[in-house]
Request: fold
Amino acid sequence: MELRQLRYFVRVVEAGSIGRAAMSLGMVTSALSQQISRLEGELSTRLLQRSASGVVPTDAGLAFFRQAQLALRHADDAVTAAQQARLAGHVSVGLPSTTAAILGAPFLQAMNERYPDIRLHLVEALSGHLADMLNGRLLDLAIVFHAESARRWSIMPLLDEPLYLCARRDMPGVPDGDTTRLDAIAHLPLVLPSGRHGLRALVNNAFQQLGQTPRVVAEVDGLSLLMDVVQLGNAATIQPSSATARIAPGQLHMARIDDAHLFRPNLLASLSDEELSPAGLAARLVLADVSRTLARDGKWAVVALHES
Reply:
């Protein structure tokens, strides 16, 4: 027996007619009649007395009607209680500096709107540090760029973002145009994060595939300071599209690097589903939703969006 069968029966008794009840329910009369007959079959008793003028409940039907009304009220109360109950708890989320530039504030706003009683702790750090914190159970979830160090993580691919050359417009050797190729900028002095950062490994591997080595003149493990160094005009940098969110229009020349193999995957890693709290599960869904919405709305440039 299903709740919808109870609702059908109660509506029929209240309407005094299967036809009128079917019309109010938006059903075909024959379909509603079949549902009532099936209910009577399951109960092995006649619930309605049918006549040319309509239907009236039998004694068994009247007793069932009263209990069905009570059961439906309880079910409606249960739904209301669930909808009004607010999910609460504490969730720690790790974001790399570049990703935090575009995702941090929208994610925080979305969580405050949807789950105001969840206390959110955001951690901005290098992707390698975030992986260590996730393995050490110091974070519930984090955006990472590779999952080689995973220990029972749940991994959800989010999106792949392109990389950009960022430099002062008057820096010697900077190519013109909105796009460029890696071999066209191999001669440029670069300021990049250190080897602990996932972006550095990605850039090194890309140059290695070309048989070259990036000309790194400084290593800076902090996005704001790194961009300050680039502003001096002595070196350029290579950054993902998310990092460009903190660059004011016209502040730097930015050219998308169009090498097909050069992009940065963003993975949403979390503790296993068995370990993640209900608040953590909610935060994971919101983080994925906000990320994909930013990409669909054109606020986060991507080369691929993983919907599943």
